[in-house]
């Protein structure tokens, strides 16, 4: 009974902490929190009933559930970043067309942001700019922050708003073109890296089976370290570069 109570308490506190973490990262909406409270109760019923008989399995279950819950915000953020990059140029085009049609910049932000057609982050940026909350953006992505800051600056501009939006849109278009060219340039190197990885694994298996891994541990360790460093370097080519125009 005491062990079952321990499992129950650990699971409940972990789930409560994770839900607050999700709320802070804006993975869930406040109105969804109550529904997840009931889901939290359902997910942590198995350790209560089976904690005494299968203690190890219950601990593995709880640890896996917590790890999955902690990884979910990162997966959601990755998805939102891709959505933001994919829809950024059409979103700026929509803002520009709205301003040119005679609406004010703030009205255009409200109209485009409320439609939710251009992804979560762009809608959030529009809402924050309208409210002029310069510290409310959750995303850590450099491009998302840059768009947010630029739209804030345009909001404080009293004239030539359409021209500033057009100039900003042109800058984003040029940078996107550079990113696509960079991706094509590094595609061949990454394809070769995959082929070399398969060859290295084959050679590693052959050496281990025919000559013994323990007898060649030094050479295998050095070669594996160098190969890993080279592979990571190839796959990070162009990712850390900040395109400027």
Largest sheet: none
Radius of gyration: 26 Å
**Number of DSSP strand runs:** 0
Helix share, percent: over 70%
General form? flat
> How much of the sequence is in beta strands?
under 5%
Give the H and E element order: HHHHHHHHH
In round numbers, the mean pLDDT is 76
Describe the fold and architecture.
By secondary structure, the chain is an all-alpha fold. Among the domains are: 2-80, no CATH class; 179-245. Helix content is 78%, strand content 0%. It has nine helices and no strands. The chain has helices at 2-24, 33-43, 45-50, 55-100, 105-115, 120-131, 142-155, 161-210, 217-235. Helix 1 runs antiparallel to helix 2, helix 4 (55-100) runs antiparallel to helix 5 (105-115) and helix 6 runs parallel beside helix 7. Residues 241-245 have low confidence and may be disordered.
Q: Topology of this protein?
A:
Elements: H1 2-24, H2 33-43, H3 45-50, H4 55-100, H5 105-115, H6 120-131, H7 142-155, H8 161-210, H9 217-235
Helix pairs in contact: 1-2, 1-4, 4-5, 4-8, 5-6, 6-7, 8-9
Concise account of the structure shown:
It contains nine helices and no strands.
């Amino acid at each position: 009974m005491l062990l079952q109570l321990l499992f129950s308490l650990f699971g409940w506190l972990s789930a409560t902490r994770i839900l607050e973490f999700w709320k802070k990262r804006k993975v869930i909406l406040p109105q969804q929190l109550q529904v997840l409270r009931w889901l939290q109760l359902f997910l942590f019923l198995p350790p209560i009933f089976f904690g005494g008989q299968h203690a190890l399995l219950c601990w593995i279950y709880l640890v896996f559930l917590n790890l999955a819950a902690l990884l979910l915000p990162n997966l959601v953020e990755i998805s939102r970043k891709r959505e933001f990059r994919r829809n950024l140029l059409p979103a700026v085009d929509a803002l520009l067309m709205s301003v040119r049609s005679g609406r004010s910049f703030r009205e255009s932000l409200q109209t485009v942001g409320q439609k939710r057609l251009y992804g979560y982050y762009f809608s959030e940026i529009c809402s924050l700019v309208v409210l002029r909350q310069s510290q409310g953006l959750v995303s850590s992505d450099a491009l998302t922050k840059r768009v947010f800051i630029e739209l804030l600056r345009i909001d404080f501009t009293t004239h030539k708003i359409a021209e500033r939006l057009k100039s900003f849109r042109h800058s984003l278009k040029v940078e996107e073109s550079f990113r696509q060219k960079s991706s094509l340039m590094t595609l061949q190197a990454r394809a070769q890296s995959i082929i070399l990885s398969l060859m290295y694994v084959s050679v590693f298996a052959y050496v281990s089976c025919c000559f013994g891994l323990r007898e060649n541990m030094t050479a295998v360790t050095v070669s594996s370290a160098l190969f890993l460093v080279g592979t990571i370097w190839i796959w990070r080519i162009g990712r850390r570069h900040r395109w400027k125009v």
